[in-house]
Amino acid sequence: MIRRIINKVFGRKSRASGSGAQILPLAAHGIRRAQLDDCGLKTCETLAQAGFKGYVVGGAVRDLLLGKTPKDFDVATDATPEEVRRLFRRSRIIGRRFQIVHVMCGRVTIEVTTFRSNGQKETEDEDERPTDEHGRLLSDNVFGNMADDAARRDFTINALYYDPAREEVHDYFGGVADCKKRVLRMIGDPETRFREDPVRMLRAARFAAKLDFHIDPDTRKPVATLAPLLANIPRARIFDEALKLLMSGHALRGVHQLRAEGLHHGMLPLLDTILDDPTGERFINAALKTTDMRIAEDKPASPAFLFGTLLWPQVLQRWRALEAAGEKPQPALFLAMDEVLDAQRGQLAIPRRYDGMMKEIWALQPRFEQRGGQRPFRLLEHPRFRAAYDFLLLRAESGEVDAELGEWWTRFQEVGDDERAAMLLADNAPKPRRKRKRRKPGDASSGEAQPA
Ligand code: ATP
Ligand code: MG
Predict the structure, then answer these.
(1) Smallest Cα–Cα separation from 235: which of 199, 259, 263, 204?
(2) Percent composition of the chain: helix, strand, coil (DSSP 3-state, to 5)
(3) Is 153 in the pocket of ligand 1 (CB under 6 A)?
């Protein structure tokens, strides 16, 4: 009887998975089946009906435990990818080496992953595991049981498996307790695990910022020495991680966390120079804060806008330098933009698809200075006006341009025609160069900043 009460409150040791997982009942974790997304629930049920295991795992369980709404649901199972695919009509196998299955219901996609092992059990000998000379794991595609699967995950709070049928959480490494203590703790030996996959260091910074968790000292210790290993990671993966951090809703804290851990060299190398300059720091902080606020309000936040802000201090610096060297303002700005975009490709590798929008936003900035004649009206009509105006406000907030300029544009949008006319300043812009040849109608060569 006493044993049953203890089990009910604190859970019991797993026998089914045979490996020391603590099985926690509803009373110990509080996650109800009804809190799951229908699609996630149905995926687990279908797997169970076919005789397989199906658990919600990873971020969703962690977020539910913390009272947050999960952004997506991952399911772990002992069915192979092919078996999963056959069970769900609307599903497809993704990836070649590390196969996962996307199960679609409506607009929701559930990622179903077969239990994997990180190879340790295969060889019993650490040295024979497939790693490179820095300890980076080269193969992570060996199927395993649920305990193996838990052990290959990164942090204790990410190795929680929720069984919707029984409303139980299988906790292998004390993740529920760590969640309550708000501690981010690596599973296993932190140094080995960071060497296996250095991106875990960036994930640590991201989760600490996003969840407002404290990084356990043993987990944190090796990071300072191992940070340079990020140089061996493909740029595209680093970029994905950067994007996740910046779009997490906690970009401000995340970026400062990165810098505190010395991890930004591998991710945003330009951060040092930006943050060492007070205007640059105010500008970036304002940009990150705005992004966080937009995400909190469920408004769209554009990565191109954000990357545009991260690169702006460099563009500005080059722009001024080129002007000081005698270049005219407009060509100087365009040259600076291209130079900065080329240079960052070797570092952060922002994909080219964002170039167009970043350049448009940057190129419109000088046009805000022109507040006479028809120019302000034409600028209002520009399809990128809104983004460029938001960008201008950040520049004003950081003190790079006069606050008055931002306020003028805010007001200019709000008032009616008469007041707009009264607001216009003397036309101070350089007059477009008159060409002898008559211009054809619709010819855009007006000498103003045209988006590239
Ligand atoms: P988010 O809310 O950001 O999606 P998440 O924890 O779900 O957080 P994902 O990147 O979606 O993060 O990964 C899902 C799960 O896969 C993680 O919870 C973790 O268990 C495991 N995982 C992901 N990346 C790694 C990694 N590099 N090393 C070990 N385990 C990982
Ligand atoms: Mg996830």
Answers:
(1) 199
(2) 55, 10, 35
(3) yes
Task: Name the pLDDT band for 450 (thresholds 50, 70, 90).
Answer: very low
- Catalytic positions: 72, 74, 154
**Residue 291 alpha carbon to ligand 1 centre in Å:** 23
Sheet of 100-105, strand order: 12-13, 22-24, 168-171, 160-163, 54-57, 74-77, 108-114, 100-105, 91-94
Gyration radius from the chain CA atoms: 27
Span from the CA of 153 to the centroid of ligand 1 (angstroms): 7
Ligand 1 contact via 199 beta carbon (within 6 Å):
yes
User: How many angstroms is it from 24 CA to the middle of ligand 1?
Assistant: 22
Task: Return the C-alpha torsion angle 162, 168, 173, 176, nearest 10.
Answer: 90
Q: Tell me how far the alpha carbon of residue 71 lies from the centroid of ligand 2, in angstroms.
A: 7
CA-closest residue to ligand 1 atom 13: 58
Asked if residue 206 has its Cβ within 6 Å of ligand 1, the reply is no
DSSP line for 172-216: SSSHHHHHHHTEE-BSS-HHHHHHH-THHHHHHHHHHHHHTPEEP
Residues 366/369/371/374 CA torsion (nearest 10 deg): -10
Domains of the chain in start order, with CATH, are 1-181 (3.30.460.10)
DSSP secondary structure string, 38-98?
HHHHHHHHHHHHTT--EEEETHHHHHHHTTPPPS--EEEESS-HHHHHHH-SSEEEE-SSS
In this structure, are strands 108-114 and 74-77 parallel, antiparallel, or unpaired?
A: parallel
Mean pLDDT, the chain, integer: 87
> pLDDT value at position 201?
96
Q: Is 254 in the pocket of ligand 1 (CB under 6 A)?
A: no
Name the one residue in this structure whose structure tokens are 């006319």: 421
Atom of ligand 1 nearest to the CA of 244: 3
In ligand 1, the atom with minimum distance to the C-alpha of 159 is 20
Phi, psi of 52 (to 5 degrees): -105, 170
74 bridge partner residues = 57, 111
Question: For 293-348, how does the pLDDT look when each residue is reduced to its tens digit (9 = 90+)?
Answer: 999 999 989 999 999 999 999 999 999 999 999 999 999 999 999 999 988 877 77
Question: From the alpha carbon of 70, which atom of ligand 1 is closest?
Answer: 2
Establish whether residue 74 lines the binding site of ligand 1, counting it when its CB lies within 6 angstroms of any ligand atom: yes
